[in-house]
Design goal:
The chain has helices spanning 2-56, 60-63, 92-107, 121-126, 143-158, 196-205, 215-296, and strands at residues 76-82, 110-116, 131-135, 164-174, 177-186. By secondary structure, the protein is of the alpha/beta class. It has two domains: 2-23 and 250-296, Helix Hairpins (Orthogonal Bundle); 26-247, Pyruvate Kinase, Chain: A, domain 1, CATH 3.40.1380.10.
């Protein structure tokens, strides 16, 4: 009976775990749909602003712009590590942290880290990364949060605290797959790489275009938009990957609880049958003993 009681207690515990994992799966799925929708809405606008910026990147006004002019010497690099807000999402955060560690070691340059997200502050610090600032970003990053971070990164680059700003995050490929990657935010990488797409953009630049109020003012506006949109898009992409990783992890956990409940139920049935067989044997044995005693008397 003690064994039966222990199995029933464990089944009840696993059922509670199943309920929790299913609830977390549903919450993650809802957040995933929300971030995917926000990312899709931003992408069209961000792509168009990037196209306009690419058209003007060869302009004389762009060559002297501080956001587009690389430093003669890169002494200090600011790495913006965009981790999740919590765990229970598989290897999402750990894989990104390992990638960031390896990437920084390979660069071999003086650096510091700005962490975005609430996960693993102690783990990030124990990894030997110099975390100077931490930004808390919501589960669905807003444009205001992105602008706040973008303005801070621009200030660090402008005053020389950082000669290069690099975003380190999880690239969202599919619901089941995320890939750690990095992207240089500042200085803005040149789009004039001779590719076919850029040639098309440059050809459109050769047409007569009237800029209002003027090319310089428009370029400044486009650069601010580009930086803010890039940060916002990366934050949304990272959060999309986090929610999809958590949904996948909770789906696997819920499936595992189902299998474990089936195994425990089978074990419970076997234990119950064994207990019944033992009781029947004891009853039969007792009856046989009584019969033998009756015959002797």
């Amino acid at each position: 009976m003690a064994n039966l009681r222990a199995i029933r207690t464990r089944i009840k515990s696993v059922e509670n775990t199943r309920q929790i994992t299913k609830s977390m799966k549903m919450v993650a799925a809802a957040k995933l749909r929300k971030t995917q929708a926000a990312f899709a809405d931003l992408r069209a606008f961000a792509d168009r602003s990037a196209e306009l910026l690419a058209q003007m990147s060869g302009d004389s006004a762009a060559k002297g712009n501080p956001w587009m002019t690389p430093r003669e010497e890169i002494r200090t690099v600011c790495y913006v590590l965009i981790v999740g807000n919590r765990g229970l999402c598989g290897t999402y955060n750990q894989a990104l942290l390992r990638y960031c560690e390896d990437f920084i070691k390979q660069s071999g340059r003086e650096n510091y880290v700005i962490s975005c997200g609430r996960w693993g502050k102690d783990l990030i610090a124990s990894a030997g990364l110099e975390v100077r600032e931490t930004f808390e970003i919501g589960d669905t990053p807003t444009h205001e949060e992105a602008l706040k971070l973008a303005e801070r990164l621009k200030a660090l680059y402008r005053d020389g605290t950082a000669d290069e700003v690099v975003l380190v995050y999880q690239h969202y490929r599919t619901v089941l797959s995320q890939e750690p990657t990095h992207a240089v935010l500042l200085p803005i990488p040149s789009k004039n790489d001779g590719s076919k797409s850029n040639s098309t953009l440059k050809s459109s630049l050769d047409t007569d275009i009237i800029y209002e109020p003027d090319r310089e003012s428009l370029l400044v506006t486009l650069l601010d938009m580009y930086i803010g949109n890039t940060v916002h898009a990366v934050l949304l992409e990272a959060r999309t990957g986090e929610h999809s990783a958590r949904m996948t992890a909770m789906t696997a956990a819920a499936d595992n609880t189902e299998e474990l409940i089936s195994e425990l139920t089978l074990e419970l049935n076997h234990a119950r049958q064994a207990a019944i067989t033992t009781e029947i044997s004891e009853i039969a044995g007792g009856a046989e003993a009584l019969r033998n005693n009756a015959e002797k008397t």
